[in-house]
Amino acid sequence: MDSKRSVLNIVTLIVLGGSVIGSIFVGILVYILLSSNGVEGALTKALISAVVIQIAFLIPIFLVRMLVDRMVVERIREVSKALEEISTGNLDYELKVEGDDEIGELAESFERMRISMKTIMEKLEEGEL
Known about the structure:
single chain; mainly alpha; 3 helices
């Protein structure tokens, strides 16, 4: 899965790009405002404000990305792995994704389907169907 493009990575890059553009925009505004008032060191203050704003954005972006990865992406990867195992005929592969959200419901439905398929396959092998 690592070789494939991740939606989370793409969203992170978009948000980071937006924060870079925003901090540059703020830096330019700070420079314009300070230089028009004759403040010395306007460029330095503008650069410092842009860097501080960028750091202020990076920390929450990193934390949110970790949270989404843990709460959503890892669970989706577990469901995907189970789908892959079942599609290759391993009906004994149990999916253990818990939660009361949509991913948990998907996992429960998938697990019910796996059990039904396994039961049907066992009955077919025994000649009951």
